[in-house]
Amino acid sequence: MTYDLVIGDRAYSSWSLRGWLLFYAFGIPVRLHRARLYTNELPNLLKSFHPARTAPTMRTPAGTVVPESLAIAEELASRHPEAGIWPADPEARAVARALAAEMHAGFTALRSHCPMNLRVSYTDCAPPQAVLDDLARLQVIWDWARAATGATGPWLCGAYSAVDVFFAPVATRIATYNLPVDGPARAYVAAHLAHPSFRRWRAMGMVDGPDQAFYRRDYPIRPWPGPVPLPARAVDGTASEDAACPYSSDPVTHVLELDGRRFGFCNAFCRDKTMADPEAWPAFMALYRS
């Protein structure tokens, strides 16, 4: 049996990103239900997930509804101890849980001034002092986590875990708004932007619906600071190297071109999410490299 997960717009819903990563980054099967924010879609969808009011919301295979990303993380960790959602070492796990809890409840100035938007990056957003204070606090606890757990890789408490999931939208905010942080924090942000699951989420977020006006800002724009996508483009027709979509094995209806080669997909979304970041999709890259 499979879990169900309600999410909002991938480009903008920071809590949805956390919920999704708790499944996809740890290999737990889930069935997605997506609703567009600032419409009736989300409240209508959540009528069948009573008493939830927000995304993400999980429903277990037995039917129990679990709102709130921190509760989802703990429930999945207890049900799937082999997935490594929290660090195995008790002391590292304690640190990770402390940081995730602070993230869940705090950093309101940063959240308010810099809402998550994965479709753009700005040169400057004139962060007020309250946002700078939040950034200073982030760097204090990130440095403390590494020192307390002896982490030497890119993540806070050793291997990638739920604490990194909880800070993923913060990393995107730093990237989107070009917020001032020190070298270790910049490296941590870069690790998030390059994480395979995050790259897939952002690629889908680039193409799954029109821009949301609420998130538009009039700051000068710069290129996205994450990995540069391969230069794919949509083309007309159905002629392609592959006879079936690399994801569904259904017949080709939409095609992209990359390096003068044509690759087909079963619908516009499959093509467009691949075009947004071809290297984010292992099934496509296996076809491309064949």
UniProtKB/TrEMBL annotation:
The keyword Transferase applies. Residues 3-84 form the GST N-terminal domain. InterPro entries: Glutathione-S-Trfase_C_sf (IPR036282), Glutathione_S-Trfase_N (IPR004045), Thioredoxin-like_sf (IPR036249). The keyword Transferase applies. Keywords: Transferase. GO terms for molecular function: transferase activity. This is Glutathione S-transferase.
